[in-house]
## 1
Amino acid sequence: MKRRRNARTALVAYAYLAPALLGLFFLTIFPILGVIAISLTNWSGLEAPTFIGLGNYLRIFTTDFYFAHSVAATLYFALGAVISGIIYSFSVALMLNKNVPGRGFWRSVFFLPYIVPSIGSSIVWSWMYEANFGVFNFVLRMLKVGRLQWLQDERLATPSIIVMAVWGCGSMIVIFLAGLQNVPKSYLEAVEIDGGNAWHKFRHITIPMMTPIIFFNFLMSMISNLQIFVPAYALTQGGPSDSTLYMVYLMYREGFMRNNFGHASALSLIFFIFIAALTAIFFATTRRWIYYAGE
Amino acid sequence: MESSRHTTNLAVAVVVSLLGLAVLFPFFWMVRSSLMSNIEIYRYPPLLIPKNWRFINYAVTLQTFPFARYILNTMTIAVPSIIGVLLTSSLAAYAFARLDFPLKKLWFTLVIGSMLMPGAVTIIPIFIAWSSVGLGNGYTALIVPAFLGGGAFNIFLVRQFLMTVPRDLDEAALIDGAGHGRILFQILAPLIRPVLISVGLFTFILYWNDILGPLIYISRTEQNTISQGLANFKSGFGTDWKAIMAACCMAVMPPVAIYFLGQKYFIEGIVLSGLKT
């Protein structure tokens, strides 16, 4: 009797899981195998693919200078955006955690850029960065400093896009703030009783208690920032001098603008391994710095 | 001691307000630019606020920026997708939270692990698969994935919320002979309404803001979504900044309005995703 009920439950469970499992296979597992297969071919999508073995990889690692530029640009952007984003959002969260007037209002304000369409925010920022009539150069002009070319300057394009990304990372502020509110007051009071000051409280209670949340935000923001696409597509087209040729944009350009599906798939797989390796390294370091309550 | 704490709090309040105003500045600059004449917008020293608010800029922009059509197209994708996400992510979340079945751990790990999977990696084989069945150009390829589990993130979110609901309720219902469908949709659904609203709102924002999907699957201009329409408008009217800012205002307004209406759910959804891991 019990056994029959268990079998029935299992049947129901698989029925309920069916859509998600179909998704797991058709949107993740098979496509990964597909990327591997297509990456071994030369394929424009029109005629039949021709098998060329590791030809695409050979080209990427030897003659394709776009790839090297792209890895450099992507790492530069992602590291810049993640580190500045964490510092910005953690500092704002710490300040909001004090009893500032209108805390709820400001929290909504800081979160707001997160829900704006990235194409819209990219365009608005590109207007502010505009070389002749943009507000940033207006300000520089009033300060009697020379104009900057911002998005048209290969040294400034990625830093300018990093500023946009940091502006848009309001969700991390909300997560940090919620985490800070969960830090037990009694721990902080214990430090006070022992004669510790604000720095001691921050260094020995707040930071250790927050490490799991810092880890989560770091990981999620790393994965999403490595996939930066919209500013490169809408504002800079990978330029100037490939300084914003981020990997997803390069993949998109090879695959969907130049119809080199084989080459683009090889790029995708390298990109996947690249992110997986970064994630693995990051996970491997967690034992050393993450504090888990109760362990 | 008390007074020094008072001054630090005041300093923090000032810094927070200044930073907050800086965060709002791009919104202000967008609206302000959208209401100016060409002479005002290019003037130096710059005007903070237009002398005459030229709402006519919006009427002019609308002649080449079919906003209503874009809304309709975007909603054609977003509405069925929201339904798909809510339905299939709740079903999967219920199975993971409430039912025992063989290989549960394995499937859970795989589904949650796919959250770390960068979506950009698989766009080419998925596009080729849709093209091979003749659906590489149109809305189908953008809607169907929502019905395939609704994304690992949402499954996880709903499951986390379900775990906080005591099991007594559904066990009582089970003894009374209710099926799992009734338990999920009639007993539990009302209790987990907040998380369902969060998931629905985030899904709306996701589809409203998506650009890569439409770029790949929608090539006919009359089918363009709002993000796509905005990108095309920018590349077509590159230097008419007042018109471009008016178009941006229109595209940005709906998500902002929805955010302010459902703020509580946005914040709770984000907090739940970040703290329960």
Note: The longest helix of chain B spans residues 2-34.
## 2
Amino acid sequence: MPIPNGGLITETNRQYYAGAQQFYIDAAGAGKTFTSTFNTDLIFGSSDPLNNNYILNNFKIYTSSDALNWLELTPSAAVANTTVIAPIAGLAVLNPVETNQTMTILVANDNVVPGMLIQNAAGNVTYGTVVSVVDNKNFIVNIVVSVPAANPGTSLSLKSASPWSVVGNIVTVASYLALGTYLKIQMNKNAIEDNYGSYEYTRLVDAIDNFLIAYVGPGKLIPSVKRSDVIFHAKRGLQEFSYDTLRSIKSQELTVNSALNVIIPQDYVNYTRLSWIDEMGVQHTIFPANTLTTNPYENPVQDDLGVPTQDSKDSNITGTSQTDAAWAANNPRRISGAFLNEYDNANLLYNSLYDTALGQRYGLNPPTSQKNGWFTINEREGKFSFSSDLAEKLITLEYISDGNAYDLDVRIPKLAEEALYAHILYAILSVTRGIQEYIVRRFKQERSAKLRNAKIRLSNLKSDQLIQVMRGKSKWLKF
Amino acid sequence: MAINVNTVYQTVLLILNKEQRGYMTPVEFNKIGNQAQLEIFETYFDSLNQQLRVPQTNVDYADRVVNIDEKISIFKTSGVATYSAPYFSLPKESGVAQSTETISTVINQQAYTYTALTSGQLSNGTVQVYFDGVLQPSSAYTINNNIITLTNSPTSVFTVLTVVDSNDFYRLGTVSYKIGALNSQELERVTKSELYHLLSSKLTKPSTTYPIYTYENQQITVYPTSIQSGITIDYIRKPLSPIWNFSLSGNAYVYNSNTSVNFELHDADQTELILKILLYAGVVIKSPEIIQVAAQQVAQENINQQR
């Protein structure tokens, strides 16, 4: 079904897979508008690649005469940057300078559109602007620097500084588009990839609208409610679900610096796992140091009597942490008791002589008997700190956010959508005056049941995977 | 969908004359008719509120909420709010209540007196003046009371068309925001005290997806303040004032349907309207019996409607 036909899918296959929406120009002209129907809203900074705001765009505009060879529509494109033969007599500056006049050219040119700058061929002198177009030979222009009289053959360059613009997903193309040509909105790679798999989610705005439609109104338990209340409970619900129900999809690939730390991500709420990556790309879980060490939150400098000292502004003078320094200088193998085996990867076929000595030491302490390193969270500096064996190592940080940090986050997996409705419903009823307690309790139970269902659904327990794991249950020895 | 003003007037006269109690002049009727119409009109909103609180049947024609909404729908309209920082002004004229008058100029005469347009209409409505069909800027004329004075003395004869759109805004409904091809968003109405909390909370801070507004002094202030266009107002307009207009034929009033204005209420309210007018007519002609009978009928009708 490549064409959306009234279902929840509103993008064509081409829009989804290739990120492209194409239009046929069935009537020539300038100032045409094209409505984008992508799931992703168009973000517009500038149509000029030389403008700093151009990088804000999440799409490009292309034109083509055959729908095969596409040319990006920029101020330097042929339709936006055309050349005409200058009027032989030139054009004077009128008094007052705001007065418009007619410029007539010898050779008809369809590409001249209102708003174009009139410049010399070199483009370093601007004579004025095109105010309006009478026909393809006569234009109403406003001249601010007189156009010199020219011999036949002298050219003027007419440029559109902004050949197109966007307001509310409607692209307005100022440049002239010829009959039978094509225009294409092409989303950027990031925008396309952000949209891939988005059918798995319902946007929070849709969930809020759906809730207001289905659960609020005359004759219902909630006859009326402030929309801001629904927004609040929906966002709070998304936050709560993010902590323990929704899948953790946030992760960063980082390198531990020589100071043995990485900065906590901006939208970080809690970590789910830190791993270091070996040369095979296999991850090895880094464990929290927990009781082994800590990062003191304050390091006041003490005098000889042990009293913290203050500066001239009466605040404690702080020094560097001795604990942090000692831990950074420590070789974790002195804690784990690991042999000096440098073959730190997951290759099963990679054995060494040292491995024959494995298991000879008595009294292993399981929590410290690992060689993947340790991390602590340095709340004072807002960083993750690592043990010295992880210096310069590639790590991955998997963490959870609260689902409200960025626009793209503000969505709920469809598997948990019903649980969100139940959450909002319960949250509103529980604070509404006059609702009987048994009704509140009913919806509390319903919320709990639906949330449990959502957790099970999102756990992704697949029977064949369980079978595969359980096949090893009777093996005594595992490598 | 309007109640014919002549039918109502004739029925009222018939009942009054049948009882041999007096006569109601067209001027009295027009004023009482307007009063009765506004009274019934205002009851729509209270009735709707009342009916929304009781269970309804969804059988055709029996749903009272739908029936009342049908009556109100006659007056539902919408318009674009104009931005003048930092407020949006409400649309004041739906264009339904429009009055016009055409004057032919006399060479070298600058001042003309309106005969059809009243000074009240001119001062309360939006006035547009056309010279031979061309809309004129306000600098081309001045209007004081019911006299228009042209800025330039006319050197030829031309027509001056004056169009007055009366301010008929009655009750604010839904305020929505739409820009380009993006989905239309309804704005939530909040009080000033709520506004401060909403603006302070990161979770509920208004956005272009969820904009809010405050409503004060016929102006709305929209948040976020980056919204400066694309605001549409759905509102209820006032009903047109009924006019039973006439021409004199001897001593008799002859109904003129062309210049008369019908009641705009729903046809279903014709009986109640007549009873209400009779009620006031009873007061005018000092007939307690008429008042009593009409009041009883009105009360009985209200009971039936709300049972």
Note: The radius of gyration of chain A is 33 Å.
